[in-house]
Amino acid sequence: MSKVDAPRHDPVPIGEVAAPPFCRLPDPLALFADRTHRLRVLSVGHELAPYLKFLGNLTEAQYRIQDDLPAPEMPDVDARKRAREFGMPPLDRNRFTADAAYDATLEHLLSLAGTIEMPPAAAAALARVTAADAGAREAMMRALLADSVPVEALAEHIFVAAALQVQFARLAAGLDASALVPVGEGACPCCGGPPVASMVVGWKGAHGTRFCGCALCGTLWNMVRIKCTLCGSTKGIRYHEIEGAGGIVKAETCEECRGYVKILQQHKQVDADPIADDVASLGLDLLVREMGYRRGAFNPFLIGY
Ligand SMILES: [Zn+2]
Ligand SMILES: [Zn+2]
Known about the structure:
Layout: E1 23-24, H1 28-43, H2 49-64, H3 77-85, H4 100-113, H5 120-131, H6 134-145, H7 154-173, E2 195-200, E3 210-214, E4 220-223, E5 237-240, E6 249-254, E7 259-265, H8 274-280, H9 282-290, E8 294-295
Parallel strand pairs: 2-7, 7-8
Antiparallel strand pairs: 1-4, 2-3, 3-4, 5-6, 6-7
The structure holds zinc ion (2 copies).
């Protein structure tokens, strides 16, 4: 008896050829509501449970404060057009200045954060940020937008990072996805930021394709698989995971630049979230760092208490 493979056994069924969009803009409410849920699920029985629960509460605050915020000031049409012509992101992180929406976002976030349960070190950091003057807050904002937060001051920056994420997700949501263009290797087409992680997605019509997730604005942009998200090399790409950890998070390492960024198997875990799953897989960072790879992703929440 012979066995013939019928076309229906192909991994991509006829009529469902993967045609991924270039990018998917964030829905600012769903982004933080879904992340809250994911952090709470991940916290159960986790060695970082108190910290993950705190982040769950913080992301819930990012969701809740949006009820009562003024609209952020969008870059004007000419500036967006110019950015597109020069292959630049429409939301320029380096030129960002606080508007009424950002000021209200930070105020509301700090005030709501004061009511949530958190580890003592986080509470002390919150007290310092709340007491900080405008100049110190501005310096924290600039450090975050330049992805250059001093390691010893990460705790303070978490709250400012949370406010910036809300602001930039709301700005990104106001852009026209069809007007966005690639702005460079490993850079978010909305804000120019680096990916926090990438995901192989299970979305209808895009099953098995890969998207990078922005740590700041939450935009997801398409990128081919088996390619370094840091330097663009396609040679010497390897995948590492912690045995018995469920296979949802892997580290994609590159021999060319010796860097790594995590890759999530969202098609196997529908609610996987770049920020949440990155923090919860800290053990994987330790493993690949021991192998001599440098972490290439930026996640303002990746610290433990
Ligand atoms: Zn972005
Ligand atoms: Zn590389």
